[in-house]
Write a structure and sequence with these properties.
Structural class: alpha+beta
Shape: globular
Number of helices: 18
Oligomer: single chain
Protein name: SAC domain-containing protein
InterPro entries: SAC_dom
Radius of gyration: 27 Å
Keywords: Membrane, Transmembrane, Transmembrane helix
Largest sheet: 13 strands, mixed
Distance between the termini: 47 Å
Transmembrane segments: 575-593, 605-622
Strand content: 15-25%
Helix content: 25-40%
Organism: Urochloa decumbens
Length: 640
């Protein structure tokens, strides 16, 4: 099948400079970013060895001894063992297992080392304990991580202070969240971070480099975690991982077999959860930036089309405060044109021409964001940068998504002009994609996925008509089995992206899946919307901290002379929504009990008024301090 990452032309985005943070015991993971920036794409000079790089280990036996972990290759690719000290994470290659002593070590099979997280309280190895094969690309298996395990290397902690042990407890919650990371995919043999077009355009010398050196830094999820392995030259353990999705379908259209693969690659530059990562940062990196590549194979031809999604690329926030829909806050409006220009400049370097499709409402809070976006992008519009606004909710409502055809009429000339990537059975390039579509709504999930699936369908029909699998006027809809599978493919794609960002499947998924709105789909949307509210307010703060930790966005000093990160004031230390909720419920219960006896005793009437006042007072206090009662990231700071 097909795979890869994105663009048309290649240039690495410069990494963001370190930013100071209000938590002194944490610092920006600038070392990782400098590493990526300095590495960029490997140069094609004499410093690179064109000989094939050693194969990655596919299966390892993990021995857990009292003083060390030992990784034993069982794939026949090497004779040396990797020994890791459980005291401080020191790594060495050894020729044999250590003596077993009186206790029997725990043994299990693992399928790769994702990397090493170095904290002030010790080092932690992340290993793959389970995997599922989800497809293949060019004969190479693609795997999804279904089991992660964190191996602590901090035995020395037993000799440190109680403050350091408390730090260990502080980090354990984040490490537990790290083990639950979803959507990780990898291959032992092929580069998943680059699109089919980019892979085709690379020379043999580049392809002979280790996979981690071929990787596009934006989509290399474990780039920071790989650093300690790179420093120790453990080349056979350097497994590149992306976060996103990989799905494919096989169908027959007439007498021809057609394979379609859909790959999502999540950018790590501004990775995060729905409410804690909005807009763009000062360098132009957008939240929820995902590259979607659709690859078709039939009759010996391979075709690919890349489109992207991402939050509106200027500084804005939507901080949770217990309300269902917190207000939008545009930050430092005067910087919007510069941030936006930087964002689109980088997109054009990577993809060529860019068509920005904005799906947000023209009224209300979304309307203010739309106005800022449209005003800021206007000075840089050109032949290679177009902007189209389409008020999805006004035109399509909640059921008439077929009206997206109005949007297609506005952009079809652009799609035809910039084409798609196409090669024949000899590997010769017939067509080249010279531009992409960048779609956004507010979350870049629900409306965006419906729109991207429409664009993907139109492109796929054009490709199939080009290689004469479909007739000139034929469409996918005329082939029911293929049509059904294709809709499910895009629905699953949208759900995977949505779950990683918001915690729930995409809304409006019934239209993508079935081609129409259904009662069950509307009920599912209601359930998922309530689920998002709960996760955004009471779960995602911890999840955001875990993401930042794994990406090196905030990194503990290697020194152990540190204080445990703490919240700020008295209210922040003791605010608890559960306690407030219990007080309100208790007050309501006592109020009802007092009201039952109020007719016979005026004191019960006064008591019921007292309990009612307490209930109202606590409710008002919680609403007034809503942001304090939510699950906030420990290291988040408003950008005002």
């Amino acid at each position: 099948m097909a795979s890869g990452a994105a663009g048309v032309t290649g240039r690495v985005l410069p990494s963001r400079p370190p930013r100071a943070n209000h938590v002194d015991s944490w610092i920006r993971g600038s070392r990782s970013l400098r590493f990526i920036q300095n590495r960029g794409y490997p140069t094609m000079d004499g410093t690179n060895d064109a000989s094939p790089s050693p194969k990655l280990h596919t299966r390892l036996r993990l021995w857990e001894f009292p003083d060390c972990y030992v990784f034993e290759p069982i794939d026949g690719l090497a004779d040396l063992y990797l020994s890791v000290s459980r005291a401080n994470g020191t790594m060495n290659l050894v020729e044999e297992l250590p003596p077993r002593g009186s206790s029997t070590p725990k043994v299990q099979t693992v399928y790769g080392v994702i990397g090493v997280l170095k904290l002030a309280v010790g080092s932690y190895f992340l290993v793959i304990t389970d995997r599922d094969c989800v497809g293949s690309y060019m004969g190479h298996a693609i795997f999804k991580v279904t089991g992660l395990k964190v191996l602590p290397c901090n035995n020395a902690l037993s000799t440190t202070s109680s403050e350091q042990k408390k730090m260990e407890t502080e980090f354990s919650e984040l490490l537990d969240a790290a083990e639950r990371t979803i959507g990780l995919h990898f291959s032992y043999d092929i580069n998943l971070t680059l699109s089919a077009q980019r892979l085709h355009d690379l020379g043999d010398e580049y392809k002979s480099l280790p996979l981690w050196r071929q990787a596009e830094p934006r989509f290399l999820w474990n780039s920071y975690l790989l650093e300690p392995l790179i420093e120790n030259k453990l080349n056979q353990y350097l497994l590149p991982v992306i976060q996103g999705s990989f799905q494919n379908i096989h169908a027959e259209v007439g007498s021809e077999k057609v394979n379609v693969t859909l790959i999502a690659r999540r950018c790590t530059r501004r990775i995060g959860t729905r409410m804690w990562r909005r807009g763009a940062d000062a360098e132009g990196y957008a939240a929820n930036f995902v590259e979607s590549e659709q690859i078709m194979q039939s009759k010996g031809f391979t075709a690919s089309y890349v489109q992207v999604r991402g939050s509106m690329p200027f500084l804005w926030e939507q901080i949770v405060d217990l309300t269902y829909k917190p207000s939008f806050d545009i930050v430092r409006q005067e910087e919007a044109p510069r941030v936006l220009e930087r964002h689109f400049h980088d997109l054009q370097k990577k993809y060529g021409a860019v068509l920005a499709v904005d799906l947000v409402n023209t009224g209300g809070g979304e309307g203010r964001l739309h106005q800022r976006y449209a005003k800021s992008i206007e000075p840089i519009l050109s032949e290679d940068l177009r902007y189209v606004h389409f008020d999805f909710h006004r035109v399509c409502g909640h059921v008439h998504f077929e009206r997206l055809s109005q949007l297609y009429e506005q952009i079809k000339d652009y799609l035809k002009k910039h084409r798609y990537f196409l090669i024949n059975d000899k590997g010769e390039k017939i067509e080249e994609q010279t531009g992409t579509v960048r779609t956004n709504c507010i979350d870049c999930l629900d409306r965006t996925n419906v729109t991207q699936s429409m664009i993907g369908r139109k492109i796929l029909e054009s490709q199939l008509q080009r290689i004469e699998v479909l007739g000139v006027d034929d469409t996918i809809s005329n082939h029911p089995a293929f049509d059904t599978n294709y809709k499910i493919l895009w629905a699953n794609h949208g759900d995977a992206i949505s779950i990683q960002y918001s915690g729930t499947p995409a809304l409006k998924g019934d239209f993508v899946r079935y081609g129409k709105r259904t009662t069950q789909g509307i009920l599912n949307d209601l359930r998922n919307a309530l689920g998002r509210y709960y996760l955004n307010n009471f779960v995602d703060g911890t999840k955001q901290d875990a993401m930042d930790l794994l990406q090196g966005n905030y990194m503990t000093s290697v020194s152990r002379d540190m204080a445990v990160p703490r919240k700020g004031g008295l209210l922040e230390n003791y605010a608890s929504f559960r306690l407030a909720f219990a007080l309100v419920m208790g007050a309501l219960m006592f109020m009802m009990m007092s009201l039952r006896h109020a007719r016979n005793d005026v004191r019960h009437l006064l008591l019921s008024l007292l309990w009612a006042g307490l209930c109202i007072g606590v409710t008002h206090f919680v609403r007034s301090n809503g942001r304090t009662f939510t699950n906030r990231p420990r290291f988040h700071q408003s950008r005002h």
